[in-house]
Amino acid sequence: MSADGGTPIVSLRGELDLLSRDRVHDYLVELTEPAPPRLVLDLAGLTFVDSSGLNVFALIHKRMQSYGGVLEAQHMTESVQKVMEISGLASLLRHPSSQAEPSGRIAGSDAG
Asked: What is the pTM of this model?
């Protein structure tokens, strides 16, 4: 994880699926405990997401929305973007036009 002006930026890499969902969910819940106004997910390294991974995004979005926070997704790969669009989550997550550069990494399970 890195921060851009106090905004947490979480870089996900590998696969976000049933095997990694709990670890990622728990980490994101911990980050949202202090109710940050904004949380950025850098998805450039995310190679695969299944329905359990999509559920993580939906739950964190709902959590942040409950206190007026915004969950942003940036640098989505084409395959992840397609899954997000099909599921309807792409319309829920804010896609900033300015893309911050992350320096940290939080992993799902590495692909390969």
From this structure: 0.80
